[in-house]
Amino acid sequence: MKKPKTRIQLRNEAIILGASLDVFSQFGFRGSTLDQISEAAGLSKANLLYYFPSKEAIHAALLAQLLETWIDPLKRLDPTGDPVEELLAYAHRKLDMSKRFPRESRLFANEILQGAPHINNVLQGELRDLTDQTHQVITKWVEAGAIRPVDPYHLIFTIWALTQHYADFAVQVRAIMGDQDPFESAGDYLETLLRRLLTP
């Protein structure tokens, strides 16, 4: 039986993962080093390697946490709910994720830009299966006249692009909007845009 981790071990693992998230989201996997992560964590490299044997192990742990969080909003789409409201709620959940988890969003974006070498199996497996299921739900809504005719895949891609942009391109958004919080108005804009697109 595996011995449970101590409070100190759990705390140090959380510190390491938080620091590595900063480093990976800024420099990507290839551009990040264990020295950068140990410095950001305020721990020695030897201490870091006590908890995680390699940079790959840290990255894998982060991606495992991220993918569970990333897929959850789509899982919560209710096929029996009001179609327009369900899709709007999904878009708002994705926007909220960009606001609350910008580093995670950039980590995901960096992984995709590098060809998804560490999560390609998930993209072509669980995510693709879930997206295909959502495609079927949206298709049924279109056929029932509950929403306007729309390509389900491109609708999903549009929601991803509209929401993740605020995290992945935060520097650009902030440069243009200055001190104004983009999320204060982004939700209303998203609501108006999608409601006009989807309402029969």
UniProtKB/TrEMBL annotation:
Coiled coil: none annotated. This is Transcriptional regulator, TetR family. SUPFAM superfamilies: Homeodomain-like (SSF46689), Tetracyclin repressor-like, C-terminal domain (SSF48498). InterPro entries: Homeodomain-like_sf (IPR009057), HTH-type_TetR-like_transc_reg (IPR050109), HTH_TetR (IPR001647), Tet_transcr_reg_TetR-rel_C_sf (IPR036271), Tscrpt_reg_YcdC_C (IPR013573). Residues 10-70 form the HTH tetR-type domain. It comes from the Bacteria. Residues 33-52 bind DNA. Signal peptide: none annotated. It holds the Pfam family TetR_N. Transmembrane segments: none annotated. GO terms for molecular function: DNA-binding transcription factor activity; transcription cis-regulatory region binding. The lineage of its organism: Bacteria, Pseudomonadati, Pseudomonadota, Alphaproteobacteria, Rhodobacterales. Keywords: DNA-binding. One of its GO terms (biological process) is negative regulation of DNA-templated transcription.
